Amino acid sequence: MKPAVLEVMRMNRVCRMVLVTSVGSFILVIFYFQSMLHPVMRRNPFGMDICCRKGSRSPLQELYNPTQLSNTAILHQIRRDQVTDTCRANSVSSRKRRVLTPNDLKHLVVDEDHEMIYCYVPKVACTNWKRVMMVLTGRGKYNDPMEIPANEAHVSSNLKTLNQYSIPEINHRLKNYMKFLFVREPFERLVSAYRNKFTQKYNTSFHKRYGTKIVRRQRKNATQEALRKGDDVKFEEFVAYLIDPHTQREEPFNEHWQTVYSLCHPCHIHYDLIGKYETLEEDSNYVLQLAGVGNYLKFPTYAKSTRTTDEMTTEFFQNISSLHQTQLFHFSSRDRITCGQKESDFVLSSPELVLGNNILPLAIDAGKYGNGSENHML
Ligand SMILES: Nc1ncnc2c1ncn2[C@@H]1O[C@H](COP(=O)(O)OS(=O)(=O)O)[C@@H](OP(=O)(O)O)[C@H]1O
């Protein structure tokens, strides 16, 4: 063959290769952008649409009109009734009525796709629940809650809370979405908070911010080092700080020991489902089942041997005087509304259940929003 013909053939081959490579790259780019637009289809290993449940029954319908009546549905009805009755009884005896403001809704995490609202309570596995909410609202960004680092679950911009909506939008969601929260026996929750925030060396921000204050106020003859570091707070001192009337006057409680009553307003917002720490995984998986994702998303299991138990809580309270136990019982009494009013065995003289004023068994009064400050109705 002549060299000119060979040269033409070589050029043709090069052109074909360039053409094939370009077309291939073009197709790859199209696939890439398509998968960005529909990540659920690409990443969900179950091939199911975890994203949205348009057209199917909502969690509220599943809960209140189940296709099959189960013991679980009845159990949750009983829990709801308990809370409603206690709140109603208290509202009859209370003269002062309080209306919620958007500021009260900071703990209510919204999942628009599954029409659910979760009120997160620190020390009741909220890290794991926030991870689950990120999977549910992430539109395919995550599959497995445990692939999300704990600190990322607590970044506020990763989840949308109810206070970020307009008042009509808030009311629409409160009316139509399934609202749920998880509660834990109040004394056990406090022990869990104390152990995590004051006995772990790495929690220096808590030591500095609260530990130093607790030592300064509750310890006579504190050393300069203890006053500076605040890293050796005793449980007795922590309890004394909680029941000290100065504490709440100075600033609101930190959310890790703030009452569920103040964080989630169970007498103002009608919760459709109240999960308990004792049955955390079972109750959580029931929520996921109601959301229609139960077959492919499970609540993370947690085999942590160091968990705060009933026995451990009893031990911590052994050194607390009966006066302080009683005062602490009063402090947390409102939270026993949602806990089914279980009294701690270690409270020596069980005081009468004290419920505060300002209880209004309504959701939110859109017309009563002012400048964001607390609004009281007579
Ligand atoms: N699946 C599961 N089962 C049982 N217990 C669980 C589970 N997930 C988290 N936990 C326990 O929840 C406690 C931590 O709660 P939070 O994540 O809300 O804590 S924090 O607010 O982020 O500090 C912490 O409790 P304590 O260990 O008693 O402190 C965790 O052990």
Automatic annotation (TrEMBL):
GO term, biological process aspect, one: chondroitin sulfate proteoglycan biosynthetic process
EC category name: transferase
Topology with respect to the bilayer: Single-pass type II membrane protein
Keyword flag Transferase: yes
Any one GO MF annotation of this record: N-acetylgalactosamine 4-sulfate 6-O-sulfotransferase activity
Keyword flag Disulfide bond: no
Xref: InterPro entries: Carb_sulfotrans_8-10, Sulfotransferase
Domain of life the protein comes from: Eukaryota
Compartment(s) of residence: Golgi apparatus membrane
GO cellular-component term (any): Golgi membrane
Residue intervals passing through the bilayer: 14-33
EC numbers on record: 2.8.2.-
Annotated keywords: Carbohydrate metabolism, Glycoprotein, Golgi apparatus, Membrane, Signal-anchor, Transferase, Transmembrane, Transmembrane helix
Family: Belongs to the sulfotransferase 2 family.
Protein name, UniProt field: Carbohydrate sulfotransferase
Organism: Ficedula albicollis
Gene: CHST11
